[in-house]
Amino acid sequence: MGLSLDASVALIAIAPFLAAILAPLIQSLAGRFAAWILFIVPAGIFIVLLGLAERVVAGQTISTAIGWVPSFGLTLGFFVDGLSLVFALTISGIGALIVLYAGAYLRGHRHLGRFLAFLLAFMGAMLGLVLADNSLAIFMFWELTSITSYLLIGFDAGRQAARRAAIQALVITNIGGLCLLVAIIVMQQLSGTWLLSELRGLEGVVRDSAFYGLVLTLVLAAAFTKSAQFPFHFWLPNAMEAPTPVSAFLHSATMVQGGVYLLARLTPVLGETSVWTGTLVAFGSVTLIWGAIGALRQTDLKQILAQTTIASLGLLVVLIGLGSKAAIAAMIVYFIAHAFYKAGLFMVVGGVDHEAGTRDITALGGLADKMPVSFIGAALGALSMFGLPLTVGYFAKEEMYLAAFGGDWLAWLVLAVLILGNALLAGIALLIMIRPFLGDALPTPRKPHEAPIAMLSGPLILGGVAVVGGLLPEWLGHDVLAPATLAVLGVEAEPHLSLSFDITNPVLWLSVITWGLGILVFRQAHRIRVLLRRAELAIGWTADRAFDAVMFGLIRFAGAVTRFLHHGRLEIYLFTVFAMLGLALFVPLSLLGGFDWIVPTADLGDWSKRLVLPDLRIYEWGILLFVLVGLLAVLIAQSRLIAILSLGIQGTGLALIFLLFGAPDLAFTQLMVEVLSVVILTVVMTNLRLDARDHRPFEDWARDGTLAVICGAGVSHLLMLVLTGTFDSRLSDFFAKTSVPVAHGANIVNVILVDYRGLDTLGEISVVMGAGIAILALLRRRNKPAIAARGEP
């Protein structure tokens, strides 16, 4: 059983991709039941992960590896420890509910199968990210999350806002992805390993290196862009253009937590420094307050939840930055609490929008009578967000206050930021729970009624689990917090979670202050919103507008560069290419002593030993003369047709050289290519006057002629210098030795082309084929007007 569970770790990341491939087919065959069938995949993954929990709680790490690129020592390794298990269970558990929710939310949509495929592919990418041990695999899955989220955000491609939001998210997160790739490569060069499990024991190698600042900057850039930290936060609210199932899954519980997971996983490698702590706490604090205040400015329920997600991500980064056992424990509990209540609230908001026709909080009221089950789901989520006792959110708040309590004035400042941020989030939680559902009923675009069971199951289950988890603090501390903290810090945290309430505990009174401030924020929400919108109008600048300005400037710059480099003048293109060739030939030769043979020495007769001149026979001189005659014919040709035909003389001369030196197959190939080239050029040039001669000014003739002589002399000189060296026969010996036994071919040249350079040859054939198709298309385009003029069918 243990072996099968270990092997299943790799299957966990692969199964969603297989389901994604089959999703459109299942949707077309099963119709409305497709989501229930696909629900089996994430639900099964959740059950398999639960089967690993007992071993993880006991302190074990379950790992497996698949051969990836053995020649480079790369394996596709996966492992499950306390941290990855918490994230993977959250992804698969919430993902299972989201699949059901999406099936009901988009019922009847003609592209539902495609949407479910994108959703499952994203799930696979996120599971791969949190389970992968190989850092290159982490990068691969990291980029897959960006690509699949791009497809999901822009799912409604008919709307410009959706397309813009998808491109913006892709641009921002991909910048971070490239930074992550560079950081991974640098860490591998410093530590000599691609595996995170091995890197953990070598943390001093990175932290004590001169490249620590570079690696830290790159990792923070990757994490901040993915997890929407200030100043990269603006893409997440725009991503709400996606359907609500996407918002509930990607931008609350999973994708945006990718950066948080990366920071937590690399804490042993990069943490425990003042730069790490200061940077994370500073940026996280700004993001927390910025997001919470931004939520109060909104009236769209999805936008309110999006802004609170930004705030919560900032709070998680602050806790990782603090880095103590209590702070990491608080981070784990808050991650769980946030995933539960935020995904549930998003699903409730989607249900309200689906059934009432609006998400505007100022246009909603009294929905509890018409949608009582939705109200219960909203209340369960909002109370956990408020941090009320007997919910997981309460213990998260208590643990983070304990982590920041005491210490120097900076610790007190961090504590004040946490209290203010939690108070703002508590007020917003009351706003979401009360304003749409209680009070007087307001007219809505649709007559409100209860959502389908598939859309209600998610908020009820997640809200119920948040309460059940709050009723079992000892289990939460022992089976969840301790293994996860052990995975991050290498030591288990002592759980402080308890249902007992000690009025002498100052942390309890900090919670009371938070609740009081939260109620005050709720009561003054309208005034705060008015003031914030006035301030925004007065400033007239947002990060989102700055992004548009940067992208517009980038496009204009790219256009200017394109116009400068791709001006359409073929002769300038060719001149630039050959000028660079001349520099590439003569500059290295000059620096490496390629012209030392010219310097006089005492022994004037030894210059010939420094440079090997060709020792040609009479008939070889004849072929050379033949080629020179062809060159002269091209230069003095009186018409375009004669110039084209004269070009074939050089190719024919080269074919003769191949033939003389024992390569008849190459000679035949060269001859065929030359004949074909001349024929194609002649056919194409029939669009021009072949009896005309192109007059060229003397300055063009002198410029191009000089450049041709320089390049020809450089190539000839280089080849003669090569002949002065000792011939290294290792490669030719290898081909001769392996041609028959390995490639089963006696003709070494053919074996090289077909086997050893198979992909290269395929590429060359593809280029020739593409050129031939293009020429054929041009010829057919030219012939159509003539056929039409004659009236032929």
UniProtKB/TrEMBL annotation:
Start and end residues of each MrpA C-terminal/MbhE domain: 702-786
NADH-Ubiquinone oxidoreductase (complex I) chain 5 N-terminal domain ranges (all copies): 71-115
Topological relation to the membrane, as annotated: Multi-pass membrane protein
MrpA C-terminal/MbhD domain mapped to chain residues: 625-688
InterPro entries per UniProt: CPA3_Na-H_Antiporter_A, MrpA_C/MbhD, MrpA_C/MbhE, ND/Mrp_TM, Proton_antipo_N
Keywords assigned: Antiport, Cell membrane, Ion transport, Membrane, Transmembrane, Transmembrane helix, Transport
Chief location bin: membrane
GO cellular component: plasma membrane
Localization annotation: Cell membrane; Membrane
Gene Ontology MF terms in the entry: antiporter activity
Domain NADH:quinone oxidoreductase/Mrp antiporter transmembrane intervals: 132-417
TM region positions: 7-27, 33-53, 60-79, 85-103, 115-132, 138-157, 169-190, 210-236, 248-267, 273-292, 304-322, 328-352, 373-397, 409-432, 453-472, 507-525, 572-598, 618-636, 641-661, 667-686, 707-727, 761-779
GO biological process: monoatomic ion transport
Iron as UniProt keyword: no
Entries under Pfam families matching the protein: MbhD, MbhE, Proton_antipo_M, Proton_antipo_N
Protein's name according to its UniProt entry: Monovalent cation/H+ antiporter subunit A
